[in-house]
């Protein structure tokens, strides 16, 4: 990867579900170290775009590069952390077993220590041996955050990460995201919780029915009025 | 982390999950025992005829019980979108697949290990005449069943009728392996050795395993990502 290569480079990307174009000719460049909020109404294509970035879906057309490489390369995937709609942890395993599993899958040299460290950072160390099925919703969400962050990803893909989090969990997630930004990681998150997202975002992109209608630095107006972008770019 | 460690990590996770929940193992063992018991009412255990059909009966039981295990293989990843988390990890799809197939293989071997002594008692059958060769035949045929079943489990995981679709899709594909396993098991139980004429069936099993393992490993990325 060259020093100037963006973290994410998308050009003329199309994705169809049957005959329905979920994404239409998306072109997007996200620079390393930035935090991009992907905005749009329900069905705009945010989740589809994030899933393509994560290598979970293949686009029908277009080119996508993550750190200059194909997102399905093993080395590229090792640099990506994803927090989707599902928490991505196993109910029948304990919190510690879950984190050790993912630490091992990501090839971390000291999986057990990393797992314990992240349980502590997400305030789950006192329930490390409890099965996830016994956890409350908030505890599961914090474990999911630990799972996504455990390998120190350079690119974080977050699909509505603040949804159904309580105040404490939101503060924890924001501090972890800020920490990730401070160490140079890139964040791409879709969200409807604009106030929480705007505190971190350096850039925003707006999708409208599969088309990218705005991409650029976060407009200063959005700090006062998070819905400014929707109103200004025609979604009302 | 190399391919083998990744495979073992995935297999270990699946086996641990199954030991905790026992959701497919209990069902598969119970199903196998029930079929063996019910079928024992239909035949005369003293008849020589039972030796001739022993292989067929056993592999029908193993194949049907196996479908219960194979159905859960990828379905257990659906809760909490765990499959997405696995696919996003740097583990190659091939390692993910072989790990899952290895776990299914172990679970199906457990079903077979429980079923065989019960078969021996119910049908008054000496099935331990050549245990090493019988074990080898069981392992080869079980690997064939699990490799086909695991790839189709991935293929059908998002179907609403996957419990129905999986058996419909896998049994026709398994026919060569099942034919070989039935013949070899029958001769091992009735004669205690594999005659030279039947070695061809052993070769067929080995060939089936190699071809379908290679094909599955090559295609699994397309199956999982589309």
Structural account:
The complex is a heterodimer of chains A (236) and B (226). By secondary structure, chain A is of the alpha/beta class. Chain A is built from 9 helices and 9 strands. Helix content of chain A is 33%, strand content 25%. Chain A has a 6-stranded mixed β-sheet with strand order 5-6-7-3-8-9, with helices on both faces. A 3-stranded antiparallel β-sheet of chain A has the order 2-1-4, covered by helices on one side. In chain A, a hairpin with a 2-residue loop joins strand 8 (203-208) and strand 9. In chain B, helix 1 (3-21) packs across helix 5 (93-122), helix 5 (93-122) crosses helix 6 (131-156) and helix 7 runs antiparallel to helix 8. The longest helix of chain B is centred in the middle third of the chain and has 30 residues, at 93-122. Chain A binds chain B through residues 51, 54-58, 72, 74-75, 77-78, 80, 82, 84-93, 97, 101-102, 104-107, 131, 147, and chain B through 1, 5-6, 9-10, 13, 16-17, 20-21, 79-82, 84-92, 221, 225-226.
């Amino acid at each position: 990867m060259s020093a100037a290569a963006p973290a994410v480079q998308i050009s003329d990307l199309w994705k169809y579900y049957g005959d329905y174009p979920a994404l239409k000719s998306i072109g997007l460049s996200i620079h390393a170290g930035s935090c991009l909020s992907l905005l749009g109404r329900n069905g705009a294509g945010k989740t589809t775009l994030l899933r393509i970035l994560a290598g979970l879906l293949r686009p029908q057309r277009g080119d996508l590069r993550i750190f200059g490489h194909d997102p399905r390369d093993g080395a590229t995937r090792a640099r990506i952390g994803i927090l989707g709609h599902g928490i991505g942890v196993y109910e029948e395993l304990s919190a510690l077993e879950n984190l050790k599993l993912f630490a091992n899958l990501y090839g971390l040299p000291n999986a057990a220590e990393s797992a314990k460290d992240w349980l502590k950072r997400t305030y789950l160390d006192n329930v490390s041996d409890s099965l996830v099925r016994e956890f409350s919703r908030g505890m599961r969400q914090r474990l999911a955050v630990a799972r996504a962050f455990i390998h120190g990803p350079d690119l974080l893909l977050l699909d509505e990460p603040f949804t159904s989090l309580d105040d404490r969990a939101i503060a924890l997630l924001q501090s972890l995201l800020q920490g990730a930004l401070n160490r140079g990681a890139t964040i791409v998150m879709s969200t409807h919780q604009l106030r929480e997202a705007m505190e971190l975002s350096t850039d925003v992109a707006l999708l409208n029915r599969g088309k990218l209608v705005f991409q650029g630095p976060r407009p200063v107006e959005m700090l006062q009025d998070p819905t400014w972008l929707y109103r200004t770019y025609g979604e009302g | 982390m190399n391919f083998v460690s990744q495979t073992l990590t995935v297999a270990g996770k699946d086996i641990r999950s199954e030991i905790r929940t026992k959701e497919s193992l209990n069902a598969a063992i119970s199903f196998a025992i029930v079929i063996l018991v019910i079928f024992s009412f239909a035949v005369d255990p003293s008849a020589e005829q039972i030796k001739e059909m022993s292989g067929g009966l056993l592999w029908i039981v193993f194949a049907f019980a196996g479908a219960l295990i194979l159905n859960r293989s990828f379905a257990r990843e659906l809760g909490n979108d765990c499959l997405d988390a696995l696919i996003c990890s740097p583990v190659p799809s091939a390692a993910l697949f072989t790990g899952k197939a290895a776990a299914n293989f172990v679970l199906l071997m457990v079903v077979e290990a429980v079923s065989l002594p019960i078969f021996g008692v119910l049908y008054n059958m000496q099935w331990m005449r050549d245990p090493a060769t019988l074990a080898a035949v069981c392992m080869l045929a079980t690997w064939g069943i699990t490799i086909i079943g695991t790839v189709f489990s991935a293929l059908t995981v998002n179907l609403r009728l996957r419990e129905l679709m999986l058996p419909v899709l896998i049994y026709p594909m398994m026919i060569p392996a099942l034919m070989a396993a039935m013949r070899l098991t029958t001769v091992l139980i009735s004669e205690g050795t594999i005659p030279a004429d039947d070695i061809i069936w052993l070769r067929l099993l080995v060939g089936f395993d190699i071809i379908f393992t290679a094909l599955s490993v090559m295609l699994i990325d397309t199956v999982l990502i589309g």
